Amino acid sequence: MMETSILKLIAFCLVLGVSLAQDVTCGGALSGSSGTVQSPNYPDRYPHNANCVWTITTEPGTQVRLTFSSFLLENSNNCSYDSLMLRDGNSNEAAMLGEPLCGAFLPFPVTSTSNVMYIEFKSDDVIRASGFQALWSTV
């Protein structure tokens, strides 16, 4: 009986370990005059515990404009579970471009003040959704 319980516990831990160790490939450096950025697996549900960072760089003297075509993230107060954060520069230290984004409302287009925009997408380990897709262009 005790051996059965131990085996069940080991099996549970193995399954839990596999589900927590999802390999998420996302983010990267994007450049040029336009392109698309989207959450992992879009339009299917994004994975648990994702942490993706994109840096969009356009020609010097221009700005980056991000226009959302689809948006659905887990909603929460202060977007503390799943969120998309847009920053006006090339690091997570740069000024935020508005508040963190989450929920089901399609955000308005966002424009940087320089030729670089930093985008960070995070998800927790509970609810998954279809995520987002946005077009970026040079202004």
UniProtKB/TrEMBL annotation:
Pfam families the record matches = CUB (PF00431)
For this entry, the protein name equals Tolloid-like protein 1
Q: Which InterPro entries does its entry note?
A: CUB_dom (IPR000859), Sperma_CUB_dom_sf (IPR035914)
Keyword terms of this UniProt record: Disulfide bond, Repeat, Signal
User: Mind telling me which CDD domains this protein's record contains?
Assistant: CUB
Instruction: Please state the span of the N-terminal signal peptide per the UniProt entry.
Output: 1-21
Q: Mind telling me which residue stretches traverse the membrane in this protein?
A: none
What species does this protein belong to? Elysia marginata
Q: Which residues form the CUB domain?
A: 26-139
